[in-house]
């Protein structure tokens, strides 16, 4: 298992530093944000595997940000742990009803927080697994960020790899060009949507072994879909 990337959002620097230290020691990559508004932009630009949010923050509270993330299609599946001094039953219920995946009250044990992070990631399948993603003759290893067809290595640029990885993680779903730009390129990148078409063509060209490119389908007027069921089967 790979630790994954955790975004910690809290306006108390000492708490942020403590959480970062214990998560990094546990093998996670960590970024920090001091307020909810900035955190939302960071999440759109560089999608984390999990977000730890303090409830009470300036500009945008952790509760409000949780609700915002869970309302938006592109961020709804990002796991959230609320971190707060609010320990009343009603507060816990409100936090979980907002869409939070777990609720940790202050003061807390760093070891317990790490255990809860791991539990949420396991439950939401957000940890990178050692087992490669596979579709037909195509296999993608997220640990080494490499792909093969029938065991033969494919030559993919960083964006093509990320695009293929995203498709394989979200099979049989249609994504518009703007959604792909947000999820693969990052929300703060301002480029023409037709750039997506260019990279789709490049991925298809790389996959054009025994018709594997058929898995990436154009959905007229909507965008693109990855359909592993349409992969040519082993003969």
What value does the average pLDDT take? Answer: 82
Quickly give the CATH architecture of the largest domain.
3-Layer(aba) Sandwich
CATH topology of the largest domain, what is it called? Rossmann fold
Q: Give the low-confidence spans.
A: none
Characterize the biggest β-sheet.
5 strands, parallel
CATH homologous group name of the largest domain: Response regulator
Roughly what percent helix?
25-40%
What is the number of independent domains?
2
Structural class: alpha/beta
Placed side by side, the strands forming the largest sheet appear as: 2-1-3-4-5
Name the beta content range.
Answer: 15-25%
What's the alpha carbon Rg, rounded to whole Å?
20 Å
- The H-and-E topology, N to C, reads as EHEHEHEHEHEEEEHEHHEE
First-last Cα distance: 32 Å
E-strand count: 12
Structural write-up:
- The protein has 235 residues and is an alpha/beta fold.
- The chain folds into two domains: 5-123, Response regulator (Rossmann fold), CATH 3.40.50.2300; 133-230, Winged helix-like DNA-binding domain superfamily/Winged helix DNA-binding domain (Arc Repressor Mutant, subunit A), CATH 1.10.10.10.
- 39% of the residues lie in helices and 20% in strands.
- It is built from eight helices and twelve strands.
- Helix 1 crosses helix 5 (110-123), helix 6 packs across helix 7 and helix 6 packs across helix 8.
- It is elongated.
């Amino acid at each position: 298992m790979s630790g994954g990337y955790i975004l910690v959002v809290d306006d108390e620097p000492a708490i942020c530093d403590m959480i970062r230290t214990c998560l990094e020691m546990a093998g996670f990559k960590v970024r920090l944000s001091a307020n909810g508004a900035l955190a939302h932009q960071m999440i759109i630009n560089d999608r984390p595997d999990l977000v730890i949010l303090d409830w009470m923050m300036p500009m945008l509270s952790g509760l409000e940000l949780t609700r915002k993330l869970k309302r938006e299609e592109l961020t709804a599946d990002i796991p959230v742990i609320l971190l707060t001094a609010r320990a009343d039953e009603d507060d816990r219920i409100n936090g979980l009803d907002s869409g939070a995946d777990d609720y940790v009250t202050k003061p807390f044990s760093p070891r317990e927080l790490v255990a809860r992070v791991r539990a949420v990631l396991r439950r939401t399948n957000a940890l990178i697994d050692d087992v490669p993603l596979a579709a037909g003759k195509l296999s993608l290893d997220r640990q080494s960020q490499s792909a093969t067809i029938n065991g033969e290595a494919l030559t993919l640029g960083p964006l093509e790899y990320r695009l293929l990885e995203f498709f394989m993680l979200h099979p049989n779903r249609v994504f518009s060009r703007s959604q792909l730009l947000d999820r693969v390129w990052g929300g703060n990148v301002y480029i023409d949507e037709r750039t997506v078409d260019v990279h789709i063509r490049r991925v298809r060209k790389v996959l054009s072994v025994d018709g594997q490119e058929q898995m990436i389908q154009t959905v007229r007027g909507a965008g693109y879909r990855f359909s592993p069921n349409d992969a040519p089967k082993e003969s």
